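Lecture notes, unit on binding sites. The following record was shown on slide 14. It pairs a sequence with adenosine-5'-diphosphate.
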Amino acid sequence: MSTLGDLIVRHGALPPRDVEWLHLLVGDWQLIADLAFADLVLWLPTAAGGFVAVAQARPSTGATVHYDDVVGSMAPEGLRPQLERAIADVAIQRSREPRWFGTYAVREEAVPVVHEGRAIAVVARQTNLGGVRTPSRLELNYVEAADDLLGMVSRGEFPSPDSATGPRRGAPRVGDGLIRLNSEGEVLYASPNALSCFHRLGVLGSLVGQSLAQVTTALLEDHSAVDESLPLVVMGRAPWRTDIEARGVCISLRAVPLVERGQRIGAVLLCRDVSELRRRERELLSKEATIREIHHRVKNNLQTVAALLRLQARRMQSPEARAALEEAMRRVSTIALVHETLSQALDEAVDFDELVDRSLRLAADVASAGQVPVRTVRTGTFGMVPAEGATALALVLTELVTNAVEHGLARSGGGTVEVIAERSGAHLRTVVSDDGAGVDPEHGPMSGLGTQIVETLVRHELRGSIEWSPRPGGGTQVILDMELRDRRREA
Ligand SMILES: Nc1ncnc2c1ncn2[C@@H]1O[C@H](COP(=O)(O)OP(=O)(O)O)[C@@H](O)[C@H]1O
Ligand SMILES: [Mg+2]
């Protein structure tokens, strides 16, 4: 499906500022659809004549007219004169007779979208009259607010460029609770949900006729931390969003000021109880920080262990004992590296490429000890690897790279170690190859501690398969196949 931006570019020649205006409108017009109990379609005049639908919103409060998507289609003949007149007269057009769509009647209105004095598009408002009874007070209040807002659209006063429609979670919608204010900031109407919100904050009785600013100030009297945007929001003067907290309850409040030719005529306030949401956010935040901190400490402890092993290795007389301790040190350092990565980006998965690049260099440096020239390359990408398997995989790779340098390249006087990652979905194939001397057949089957560690980890931790073979062109290649999965999540 095409996006609003694509469609505008394909069909019209609007300057970027107008395009931005339409984006802004569509970003915020669900509010109007909900208040109006109506479907909204944004019609853009095309260069070739006629109108194309570039966006559509259905009411979440009532029945829709368009069961199918209309976006991308041209306006039907019957609708065109009304749309054309809305643009030409720069005024809202109302049809006298409802139009019939099969079995149900639809009331239609065409609202010019005005920006910088010009009508650049038309919003068609279509109300399904199928279920119309005598409207309730709630419905009357909603529809009046919708009328006000569409009036603003037709005068270039809505959307509001500095309104707060950011991604912050918990933005209230019409169904969550609605309050209408007059130009003095007094409550004209509060929906049952809005009243419940304020009751939870400690406001008793009806709000109608009271100044919302006074009511909320009284609530907050003994609370020092007040968002400076709060007074402007509760008076309905700024199109912003804020939270009110009292008695352990948190209400998210959004104001939509209503204006007519620059004069304030009132405001619509949406409110929603977000106590639970905010509490969970705070909890998550602290849990994340804790896990990160623990990974950090594990890394520090492992580095200490590695340092102790190095100290001990230096004191060894026997070269064998010394090499063994150095190897143990190298293995512990590899695990520390994984925890360092985990402590930086807290995720269920590790960005493995960076980790491989670091441990590849580290392993090659340690193994060759500068005695032969060693080049290391990584080809392809591992992508994200579930945290659970990351340690085992890192250890296996270090062993293989160490062997490639220690046994393959050392005997051939240097060369290249290449780690190739081929990832397709959950399957990961890793190839570690070197262009060294190759596995010496005289030695019989490979049997060192390194091989044992690798085979145990591959079989039991990674549940994969591994195979050593001579590399075409000389040297050794090791192929490791495995499925990446998060067993904790599956459990
Ligand atoms: N890439 C390689 N090139 C040549 N020989 C290798 C390679 N990998 C392993 N080997 C052989 O396999 C043996 C076992 O390796 P490993 O189990 O890691 O023990 P260690 O490295 O302690 O000798 C090595 O001693 C070496 O002979
Ligand atoms: Mg080894």
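Take-home: Residues 174-273 form a domain with the Beta-Lactamase fold (CATH 3.30.450.20).
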